[in-house]
């Protein structure tokens, strides 16, 4: 139950009260564990996210003298924003949308307005194509495979009594009825996006001066965590695109038939084509212009535009349904629906957009490299070292966009392949057995490339495994120097060296992403060329090839068909396990919490952004508490993903409040993951600026940590990074550690004695005043205390 604490200032001679605001990371750490006490009280917030305190410390503000020399711990619990019941595992099916949204935020750091706008527009159009791809795939299953192909063949419906009522209708009527399935999916996505917005992202940040300095980092923008208008515009555009896709899937077959049946129906059909084209142009235009207003809070909504897009698209779909249901004597369903060839054009469009995105990213990265080289000698060296650590030399966004398109292809292709296989009684989809022509040949060609992509990934994994073994051997020689005077044991040394080597695998992620993206592009281009040139599935198109190659093509087609179907099932199973098992959640939690940290700037149907609730919560708490207690200070203490939330919240504070904050990070991915993959937001310049505006900042890390690492802030001033903590704390049995000390890797930083020492030093620095020049004062030993 929330408690209101009346403000009380310390009396004369009393030290000001200090808070330690704890922010946990991935894994759903409970407030009881964070505070190390089963008796807790929620001070503010709700079950989803709230501030908790030990019950014995609830009235700490009324007796500050009892907390001399130590802070009052408060725990900010946000785990229920990303975890919950098993139904949220279905969000994993929205993974392509989330990955496309990630690509938006991975742009290089060059602040060139024209290139930045081009990059943003390209990602938004790619995201729109993914919505069209998903709705087209569902339409392919419901409208083409079921209503057009199977329901029109007596051999297919012979053992499917549930299709008997549909088989007796005309093809146009069957298409109109089946269109309700993709229509329902589109409206479900619209409803989920609308609902999760109000549940997660509708919390407005604290009102403050919106006039940002010219060199202010992007995360300091007053409206960065409030993209209400942009999301509403994108939601309307994507919903309209989905509805228009359904309309095209059912309109084109009827219009093709009407070209030979009379001018009246054909004229009606072309009028609908004109309407659909106009609405599609409007949806693309809205997506093109749906930029974010990050520098200010934008409460306005384009209600007229939203109503026009949604109302016009629904009206066009209803008119199309009435048109195709018109009686057409002698109309028979044969082969594929004509719009099935659109999958080739859609894939070609996605490829062209990704190439354009890659060119834009290269130009932006080169601009940033030139800017770093133009600095002073020392800063240029530091800047170039940081630039070399950026993932894929600025091509992280385009590579991730390729993965988003590939994941979309796997989901859509797997769905179509499995339904076709089920309707065709287990025959290879597309072989024509049982009268079913199967899905578009492109999906079969794309499925055939999946085994090759997996083979490439396996080769990279084997190479990384070999490098891991070599690295472990190298580190075995350096472990004894970390524990001088210990009696060495080869097995213990190998265990510690192996943990340090495995932690370095995280730095190989760009290689894996880059190789997979290149393989996906090359094999995808080959699949598109094969489908376009042959017009047949791989097994049929390669009958003239030598026996071994033909057998390999058939094997790849069959194996790929099963793999894409199994991947969909595996995604659902993995998602449900991730939200029921703590171990599985930690396994997939890194990507998931990174992906849902960012606002929905490219795709409105992506899973909701928890930071649009968590960052304002933290900002409100720190701002209001420091306003109530002008002499109070706050140590913002974050672990893992909590360090990212803490840094984002610190950027949102006004300068006066930020000057009363000290930042303590441990197991932090700020530079290792976010700085390398999102250089425009957590790059070296942004982190260096944050360091200069905070009263103090210390970062704890371990060599065995696969996620956290040093922050590497350069450019003078006090060091942020502590020396690497020993892990394990003791090599063998000692009086302080009579039992074997475990290797903690990413967890239990607070158990290390260095944590308490660094926290105490931060508390001392917080109580000191800055020098008139704005630089930190020095302690009696001459060391900088800021």
UniProtKB/TrEMBL annotation:
This protein's record includes keyword Signal: no
InterPro entries tied to this protein: AB_hydrolase_fold (IPR029058)
This protein's UniProt keywords: Membrane, Transmembrane, Transmembrane helix
Residue ranges crossing the lipid bilayer per the database entry: 89-106, 118-138, 175-192, 236-255, 267-288, 308-326, 346-369, 390-411, 443-463, 511-535, 555-575
Name of the protein in question: Lipase family protein
Lineage: Bacteria, Bacillati, Actinomycetota, Actinomycetes, Kitasatosporales
């Amino acid at each position: 139950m929330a408690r209101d604490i009346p403000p009380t200032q310390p009396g004369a001679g009393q030290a000001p009260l200090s808070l330690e605001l704890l922010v946990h990371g991935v894994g759903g750490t409970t407030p009881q564990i964070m505070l190390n006490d089963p008796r807790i009280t929620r001070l503010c917030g709700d079950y989803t996210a709230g501030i908790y305190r030990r019950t014995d410390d609830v009235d700490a503000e009324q007796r500050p003298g009892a907390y001399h020399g130590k802070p009052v711990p408060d725990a900010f619990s946000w785990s229920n924003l990303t975890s919950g019941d098993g139904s949220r595992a279905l969000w994993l099916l929205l993974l392509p949308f989330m990955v496309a949204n990630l690509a938006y935020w991975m742009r290089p750091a060059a602040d060139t307005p024209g290139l930045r706008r081009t990059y943003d527009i390209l990602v938004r159009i790619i995201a729109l194509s993914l919505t069209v791809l998903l709705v087209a795939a569902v339409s392919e299953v419901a409208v083409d495979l079921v209503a057009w192909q199977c329901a029109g063949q007596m051999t297919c419906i012979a053992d499917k009594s549930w299709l008997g009522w549909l088989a007796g209708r005309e093809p146009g009527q069957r298409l109109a009825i089946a269109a309700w399935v993709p229509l329902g999916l589109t409206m479900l996505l619209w409803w989920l996006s609308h609902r999760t917005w109000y549940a997660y992202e509708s919390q407005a940040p604290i009102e403050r001066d919106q006039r940002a300095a010219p060199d202010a980092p992007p995360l300091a923008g007053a409206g960065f965590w409030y993209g209400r208008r942009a999301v509403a515009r994108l939601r309307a555009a994507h919903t309209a695109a989905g509805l228009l896709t359904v309309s095209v899937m059912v309109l084109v077959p009827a219009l093709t038939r009407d070209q030979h049946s009379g001018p009246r129906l054909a004229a009606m059909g072309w009028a609908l084509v004109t309407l659909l084209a106009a609405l599609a142009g409007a949806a693309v235009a809205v997506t093109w212009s749906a930029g974010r207003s990050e520098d200010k809070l934008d409460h306005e909504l384009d209600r007229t535009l939203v109503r026009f897009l949604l109302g016009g698209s629904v009206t066009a779909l209803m008119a199309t349904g009435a048109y195709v249901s018109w009686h057409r004597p002698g109309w028979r369903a044969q082969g594929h629906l004509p719009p099935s060839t659109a999958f080739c054009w859609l894939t070609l469009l996605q490829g062209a957009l990704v190439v354009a995105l890659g060119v834009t990213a290269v130009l932006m990265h080169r601009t940033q490299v030139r800017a770093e080289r133009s600095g002073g000698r020392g800063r240029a060296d530091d800047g170039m070292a940081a630039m070399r650590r950026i993932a894929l030399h600025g091509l992280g966004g385009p590579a991730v966009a390729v993965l988003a398109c590939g994941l979309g292809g796997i989901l859509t292709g797997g769905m179509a392949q499995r339904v076709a296989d089920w309707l065709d009684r287990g025959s290879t989809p597309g072989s024509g057995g049982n009268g079913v022509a199967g899905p578009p040949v492109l999906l079969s060609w794309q499925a055939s490339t999946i085994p090759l992509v997996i083979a490439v990934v396996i080769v990279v994994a084997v190479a990384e495994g070999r490098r891991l073994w070599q690295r472990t051997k190298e580190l075995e020689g350096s472990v004894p120097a970390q524990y001088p005077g210990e009696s060495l044991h080869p097995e213990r040394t190998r265990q510690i060296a192996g943990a340090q080597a495995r932690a370095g695998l995280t730095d190989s992620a760009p290689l894996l992403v880059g190789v997979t993206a290149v393989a996906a592009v090359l094999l995808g281009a080959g699949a598109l060329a094969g489908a376009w040139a042959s017009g047949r599935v791989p097994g049929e198109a390669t009958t003239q090839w030598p026996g071994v190659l033909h057998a390999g093509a058939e094997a790849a087609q069959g194996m790929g068909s099963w793999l894409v179907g199994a991947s969909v099932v595996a995604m659902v199973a993995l998602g449900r396990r991730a939200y029921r098992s703590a171990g599985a959640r930690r396994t997939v939690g890194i990507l998931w919490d990174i992906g849902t940290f960012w606002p929905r700037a490219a795709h409105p149907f992506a899973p909701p952004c928890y930071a649009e609730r968590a960052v304002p919560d933290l900002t409100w708490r720190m701002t209001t508490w420091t306003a109530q207690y002008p002499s109070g200070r706050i140590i913002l203490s974050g672990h893992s993903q909590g360090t990212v939330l803490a840094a984002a919240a610190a950027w949102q504070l006004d300068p006066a409040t930020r000057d009363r904050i000290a930042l303590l990070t441990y197991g932090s991915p700020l530079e290792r993951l976010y700085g390398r993959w999102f250089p425009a937001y957590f790059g070296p310049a942004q982190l260096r600026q944050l360091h200069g505006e905070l009263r103090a900042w210390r970062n704890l890390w371990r060599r065995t940590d696969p996620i956290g690492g040093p922050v590497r802030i350069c450019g003078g001033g006090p060091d942020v990074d502590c020396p690497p903590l020993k892990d394990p704390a003791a090599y063998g049995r000692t009086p302080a550690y009579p039992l074997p000390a475990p290797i903690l890797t990413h967890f239990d930083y607070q158990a290390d004695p260095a944590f308490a020492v660094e926290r105490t030093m931060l508390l001392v620095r917080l109580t000191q005043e800055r020098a008139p020049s704005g630089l930190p004062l020095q302690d009696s030993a001459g060391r900088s205390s800021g």
